[in-house]
Design brief:
plasmid, Six-hairpin glycosidase-like protein, Immunoglobulin-like, alpha+beta
Length: 840
């Protein structure tokens, strides 16, 4: 998204020139207008077939959308220009004007925007309009365009023409959508004319002030990957000419979006760094930093993310699992997020904090009673609380919990007008577990939404859970290795292991064992990582701050605790113990390596892992090659020298590096590549010729690296005793400005071959690694879409986009189609030929 600023006298509105192919992104914006919009309660069609996939599932129109279609689409809407400007939307990294976010209940959301289009002579302005939501446009007070597809999270496009008079034309835009949980909401206006358009901002600011705000918001970033007991420091690409107010709010990514710090600062003239001294020592986590730069109508808003840790050193090792469980419960009771899981820790440890206890109960019941999306995640630990500690809690609290449990909606066949998501792998499990536990705890009570007794609810839930287990036992988990969703799976599975009858409990225990095995395989130096079926930036860039990391710490004895309590406290309060052999898989002794191959999910997430004592390479191979991606994280490198030492390659799914679409800039892929892995080498071919971005890139966890070499087609990194190398056929360019400065390396071109290599060692091992890379031949034939890597003394590895992997000219198809990993230990013993690692 590029616009060229127009110089003009200070007493005129700031203006931009927009040329053919560019988009109009300079607007004055109103505050968000939102209204609860539920529609009439009704059962929904049960489309859950227990064949889980990654991506959005078409579940039909919920009651809220049916009401929206019948009452809001095409309604009379008078243009409103009386609203005060809340902030400016200025040209930056996003071609779209975007307000994507998350709403837990059905909500009608809308905003007004205004701008001025200037033309020397009357003209017909031709634009391509794309939107998720609906858009109406007025020119000089007359409605000129209306486009209201309202397809949930699906982009729609049309072409429009606006009639402009000579001079200044006042343009008013109304954008709206019906928000049902995760909501992609934007519009994009692309110039189709060869004649440029002058777009003016209707605000009382001169051109220099607006350009200053634009530059500040475009290039802002945290100074580090992680702030360790030090103040938050923000870096800008530009410096203001005059002092500017900056308001900061640090907001947790949890369901309740807690404000962890609030600071009003001043960015001084000629300064490009802002230090928030009071934003120090906040709760460990990967948090959102919400910024307002400037004041009143002369302000812009920007949200970025930053990681905060109290220590980079792992916790001292407790030798027994029971001691580590107790340690985690004590920590969670004091520092856990204000979620239902913390209540379990408080009851288990006797931590006396009645104000916090009551506040968490109130918030939990409010979410459940409002039937907020994701309330099924807190219903399960609430039921655990009721079953395990009901006789120790005040009767008034117990009665309130019982009322909320009885009135909840447990499945789509029960009437409702909420936006709860019933259809994904993790939600299906948690809803069925909630229904089972509620029925077991209140067997004779009648549940109003269904009209069933608790006993009937439990019987039905057991049948449904059987179908869920049939699916995941046969195919594995669609959300493989997910740092976001394994903790959610644990919510349901740990509760079933503790409370269900033996048949279901045994199946739950088997699945928990398998998940812990996959976690152990993909944990290096206390940080779970690896390819993931569903990933978000807030997990990929969080290192040991994910909700999954404490499970590794407790189970395997090395790592970090944090405030995640989705299911950790159930693990620690229960009697389940992971298989004893997993500890060595999680922390390999020196000189050892392990490889794993297995499949997860109905759509065949074919997973390959290579790990030695200090480096880990993980991929999903041949997965939906050439198709649009969702949240699949296909290639991941983790190095052991620092908790943030991480690299990966992906094709960006959106424009904004700080966006949160699915796929986003860093999490998922706009177009999925062809991937193959053999031991310590992975090959990847990207063909993005029909995509929004004709380039791919690598993420670099820079703070965690001791060495970084970027030269020609190679990017080489070292963290402690772990090494990695990336090669790109179109060359590698380190980005040095903007929000990804120092942490992004791009390879331009729609067709590109990438290679990834890992190794480890002490002393001169890194020098030897570099020497082996110099002796390595890598070549990509774009006509054949064929990538070949020949290591020194080894057979050539070739990846064909059409035909897959071959080694030494012989096809090497992936044949491990079972959910349980097949392991190979210490293949280095066989040498650096076809069957051994090449660089480790």
């Amino acid at each position: 998204m590029e616009t060229e600023s127009i110089k003009q006298p200070d007493n005129m509105a700031p203006a931009y020139s927009v040329v053919e192919g560019q988009t109009i992104t300079a607007w004055a914006v109103s505050a968000l207008i939102e209204r609860y919009f539920p529609g009439e309660p009704a059962p929904a069609e049960d489309r859950v077939n227990y064949r889980f996939i990654n991506g959005f599932v078409d579940v039909g129109d919920l009651p809220c959308r049916k009401a929206f279609w019948s009452t809001m689409v095409g309604r009379a809407l008078e243009p409103d220009t009386s609203w005060p400007t809340e902030s400016l939307y200025l040209p930056g990294s996003n071609r779209r004007v975007e307000f994507t976010s998350f709403w837990h209940v059905p909500t009608h959301v809308r905003r007004w925007l205004k701008g001025t289009f200037r033309t020397d002579a009357p003209r017909r302005l031709n634009l391509a309009l794309k939107t998720c939501g609906g858009v109406r446009i007025w020119v000089n007070g007359q409605e000129a365009s209306r486009f209201e597809p309202f397809r949930r999270n699906v982009e729609s496009a049309t072409e429009i023409a606006l009639t402009l008079e000579a001079g200044d034309n006042e343009v008013l835009v109304h954008t709206e959508d019906l928000a049902e949980r995760d909501t992609t909401w934007f519009f994009e206006l692309e110039m189709l004319d060869s004649e440029p358009l002058s777009v003016l901002l209707p605000v009382a600011l001169d051109q220099n002030e607006v350009r200053e705000l634009e530059a500040l918001s475009r290039g802002v970033r945290p100074a580090r990957d992680v702030f360790v007991n030090q103040p938050l420091e923000i870096v800008f690409d530009a410096a203001p000419a005059h002092d500017l107010p900056v308001e900061l709010k640090v907001v947790g990514h949890g369901h309740e979006r807690p404000v962890l710090a609030h600071s009003k600062l001043t960015l001084r003239a000629q300064q490009s760094r802002l230090i928030a001294e009071e934003v120090c020592g906040i709760a460990d986590g990967y948090h959102g930093v919400h910024m307002t730069i400037g004041s009143g109508p002369g302000s812009v808003t920007r949200v970025i993310d930053a990681a905060f840790m109290s220590s980079l050193s792992p916790l001292p090792v407790e030798t027994s699992l029971s001691a580590r469980k107790r340690q985690a419960l004590e920590y969670s009771a004091r520092f856990g997020a204000n979620r239902a899981g913390r209540l379990i820790a408080m009851m288990e440890t006797g931590h006396h904090d009645p104000k916090s206890f009551d506040r968490i109960v109130d918030a939990t019941l409010a979410s459940i009673d409002a039937r907020e999306d994701c309330s099924d995640f807190i219903m399960v630990p609430l039921l655990w609380l009721l079953g395990a500690y009901g006789d120790r809690m005040p009767e008034a609290i117990v009665e309130r919990i019982r009322r909320s449990v009885l009135s909840y909606r447990y499945w789509v066949d029960e009437p409702g007008n909420d936006a709860m998501w019933f259809w994904s792998e993790n939600h299906v499990l948690c809803f069925h577990t909630s229904q089972l536990l509620a029925g077991l705890l209140l067997p004779d009570a009648v549940f109003p939404a269904s009209g069933r007794t608790g006993r009937q609810q439990a019987e039905l839930a057991a049948e449904r859970l059987g179908r869920w287990f049939d699916s995941v036992e046969a195919h594995g988990l669609a959300e493989w290795n997910s740092a976001a969703y394994y903790p959610i799976d644990f919510i349901g599975l740990l509760a079933l292991e503790r409370w269900a009858e033996s048949g279901i409990a045994d199946r739950a225990r088997g699945q928990i064992d398998l998940i812990f095995r996959m976690i152990a395989l993909h944990t290096l130096a206390g940080v779970p990582a690896g390819s993931q079926g569903r990933a978000y930036d807030k997990e990929l860039r969080a290192g040991p701050l994910t909700e999954l990391a404490p499970f590794a710490q407790v189970a395997f004895g090395t790592g970090w605790l944090n405030n995640g309590v989705a299911a950790l406290t159930m693990f620690c309060a229960g009697s389940y113990e992971p298989p004893a052999d997993l500890t060595e898989l999680a922390a390999l002794p020196g000189g050892r390596s392990v490889e794993a191959r297995y499949s997860q999910g109905l759509e065949s997430g074919k997973l390959v892992l290579f790990k030695n004592e200090a480096a880990q390479l993980s991929t999903v191979v041949d997965h939906k090659t050439g198709r649009k991606g969702h949240q699949q994280h296909v290639l991941d490198i983790r190095l052991a020298g620092h908790p943030m030492a991480r690299l990966w390659v992906n094709h960006p799914g959106e424009d904004d590096p700080w966006g949160n679409q699915r796929p986003s800039y860093w999490a998922g892929n706009g177009i999925l590549p062809r991937v193959a892995q053999h031991r310590d080498v992975a090959l990847l071919i990207e063909d993005t010729s029909d995509a929004r971005h004709a380039w791919t890139h690598a993420y670099i966890g820079r703070d965690g690296l001791d060495d970084l070499i970027v030269e020609g087609k190679w990017l080489i990194a070292r963290s402690g005793r772990g090494f990695s190398a990336l090669w790109a056929s179109n060359g590698v360019e380190l980005i040095t400005e903007g929000p990804t400065a120092g942490r992004e390396a791009r390879s331009y071109g729609s067709l590109c071959g990438w290679a990834a290599i890992v190794g480890c060692g002490n002393g001169d091992a890194f020098k030897a690694f570099l020497e082996r890379l110099c002796q390595t031949t890598v070549a990509f034939d774009p006509a054949l879409r064929l990538l070949t890597l020949t290591p020194p003394g080894g057979a050539a590895l070739s990846l064909s986009y059409a035909d897959g992997l071959s080694i030494g000219g012989r096809p090497r198809p992936f044949t491990h189609d079972q959910p349980h990993p097949i392991l190979t230990h210490d293949s280095a013993a066989s040498g650096a030929g076809t069957d051994g690692p090449f660089y480790s």
